[in-house]
Amino acid sequence: MQLNHQDSGNFFLIAGPCAIEGEEMALRIGERILEITDTLQIPFIFKGSYRKANRSRIDSFSGIGDEKALTILRKVGETLGVPTTTDIHADEEAAMAAAYVDVLQIPAFLCRQTSLLEAAAKTGKVVNIKKGQFLSPSAMQHARQKVVDSGNDQVWLTERGVTFGYTDLVVDYRGIPTMQDYGSPVILDCTHSLQQPNQSSGVTGGRPAMIETIARAGVAVGVDGLFLETHYAPAEAKSDAANMLPLDQLESLLRKLVAVRQAVNGF
């Protein structure tokens, strides 16, 4: 899969809702993101989780059904003419999800799971590995190498913060050039980096007001891509409601980030 972000001089964007809740919502969000990114010449990949496997409580929303959600992801991609991505959680899910999407995302908690990385690699799809909250940037070279050694050099690495105490994450921006040195595009997850996990309520918190701060710094450092989750009504979303960006704020944010990238490109 080719992205023309280098031709445009921009970062690329992976964006969409945390979870696929239905066809109408997925298309509505995807259409608006595409409208904005086309205007700003930002290559766009639509993201949506077909299943949420890592939940704080057993009664948390996990999905609308695997095949139903994956079929919606395929329809979004075909309707909008954009690549799509979703996360996988077990070896047998790799081939299943690969039949519907263009990029397989490896969740941060599973980034060292050798058999999962091998299964994802063997699909021939792009494999986007999220850096574990417990790993140093330099440790990601080994996760990347597992995919390469399995015959697939289409690997992306995503920074999503490091655990700081029990209920916060911090981003060490030194990790972006460190991981870029391994030869893969590096993405900054601007929403999950602001999660506040381990809340006593069993519902993960977040600080979405800081998304612009995190994203500006990443673009200034020279990140290749940005990842963020967005929804037209975050408070009503069935997953990650506390840290998604309101969709009506996306255009303003991206315009600012494009200006930052243009300034960096001028140096």
TrEMBL record:
Keyword presence, Cytoplasm: yes
Superkingdom assignment: Bacteria
Compartments where located: Cytoplasm
GO CC list: cytoplasm
Annotated ranges, domain DAHP synthetase I/KDSA: 10-262
Chief place where the protein resides: cytoplasm
Family annotation (Pfam families): DAHP_synth_1
Enzyme Commission identifier(s): 2.5.1.55
Record key words, sorted: Cytoplasm, Transferase
Gene Ontology MF, one: 3-deoxy-8-phosphooctulonate synthase activity
GO terms under biological process: lipopolysaccharide biosynthetic process
Pathway in which this enzyme or protein is active: Carbohydrate biosynthesis; 3-deoxy-D-manno-octulosonate biosynthesis; 3-deoxy-D-manno-octulosonate from D-ribulose 5-phosphate: step 2/3; Bacterial outer membrane biogenesis; lipopolysaccharide biosynthesis
EC top class named in words: transferase
Homology family: Belongs to the KdsA family.
Protein name, UniProt field: 3-deoxy-8-phosphooctulonate synthase
